[in-house]
Amino acid sequence: MTDPGERLRGIGPDDVAALAARLGADAVSWPAPPRYREEPRGKLAGHPASALVRPRSTEEVSRVLSFCHERRIPVVPYGGGTGLVGGQVMADLPPLVLSLERMRAIRSISPADGAMVVEAGAVLADVQAAAAAHDRLFPLSMASEGSCTIGGNLATNAGGVQVLRYGNARTLCLGIEAVMADGRIHHGLRSLHKDNTGYDLRDLLIGSEGTLGIITAATLRLHMRPRAHATAFLAVASPAAALELLHAALAALDERLTAFELISAQSFAFMADRLPAIRRPFETAPAWSVLMEAAGSEAGEIEDRLFGVIETALVAGQVTDGRMARSERDRREFWHFRESIPLANRAVGAIVSHDISLPLGAIPAFLDEAPRRIWEIAPVRINAFGHLGDGNLHYNFFPPEGCDRRAYAALAPKLSERLYELVAVRGGSISAEHGIGRFRAGDLARFADPAALGAMRAIKAALDPRGILNPGAVLAN
Ligand code: ZN
To answer: How far is the CA of 135 from the centre of ligand 1 (A)?
Structure first.
């Protein structure tokens, strides 16, 4: 049915020359340097003939997109390159990789409005620091914050370790500026907290992974900066005990509870094996442990409340051992351990990784049943950890000790499918905070609600009729 003239075509030398003439030679590289053709786990290589463009302004992004729209050239938006679902690499055709790294300005910051306007290429840690310099908090926080960018955070609706209290990237965004597929600029940088004027383009573009438009700047929501933290690393009797502890902590601390992370013994074992220099909170790995943190204005008050919760849980046998952070250094060490778990996982080498969410109450039974059902397929090692407070677990499979992961690669689809079936029957999601990208597009087609999937395809066709924006991401070709 498709007219060959309507197909996408890979970028070639003539296109690169024409783009360089429009934007200046220093804005365009061909082929794109290797790091723009890689993703962190090395699971998908970008096309070797990909080109790179680094526009300096929203106006230049607009010119690039209208050029590519006209010539039907695929465009892959690129933030910090830290995404874990292959959204930043395209292999089947040489695309134009559009990096926003030159657009990293903090355009304005207004503590009085509780808002700051930043360009998409701003690194998350720089945005946090800019807010802190004005005695405010930008609470989005994750292990990759030193290299991931705000544009990528919004495009993937990223989560991280403080969603429990402050919400995910979507919650923290008041407005966006974006360039649509044909080059038109959407000027939506407002700092309104309420705005019911029809369909919400901001919410449509957030989480669209660069398939509906390219976010070039955003108005971000700022919070008051907490004056004090209370942090504890606790061994718990079971995931069910961890959940009871979560509810007790919420009852005592309410929104002052900012993080509640679950960690398995397998995480401790991988950390001891691969990153032995990083201090572990316990000599002997507990089967399950929890890292929890509260934040508030008075140190004494939140510490007392957190300690009260822990004491009650110790008496009830829900908590079996624990450490309170006695200093900022202790606190940093606890978090450094937690945030290094993905690095240890990468060093071991997963067969396949997952980012699932479940209703909170379903998690203990899921954690009990899933290993048995997975081991019916293969005796893999399982590392389950993540943001229990959000019902979000990272659930990753590794080869048995001493075995090569390549020997298990062929089983990966079967392992994932079994896991997703266990998630689906409990009303869970196959992607909580990492997005769909290219690695999960097939799973989305299989597990998404058909009406939702139909609407997604219709929206894609309406906003990107030539299909140039990140083709193959989110919606399988
Ligand atoms: Zn996470």
So the answer is: 27
- Which tokens in the block code for residue 56? 């300096």
pLDDT of residue 299: 87
Phi, psi angle pair for 427, to nearest 5°: 75, 30
Question: Hey, what amino acid is at 131?
Answer: A
CA 122 to chain centre: 16
- Going from the Cα of 140 to the center of ligand 1, the distance in angstroms, rounded, reads 12
- Residue 169 pLDDT exceeds 50: yes
Q: What is the pLDDT of residue 5?
A: 52
Going from the Cα of 417 to the center of ligand 1, the distance in angstroms, rounded, reads 21
Alpha helix stretches (DSSP H) within 56-211: 58-71, 124-133, 150-155, 163-166, 201-205
* Residue 143 to residue 80: CA distance in whole angstroms: 13
Angstrom distance (rounded) from CA 130 to CA 117: 11
Half-sphere exposure of 309 (CA within 13 A, CB side): 28
**For all residues of the chain together, what is the average pLDDT?**
96
- Number of Cβ within 10 Å of residue 129's Cβ equals 12
- pLDDT tens digits, one per residue of 13-59: 999 999 999 999 999 999 999 999 999 989 999 999 999 999 999 99
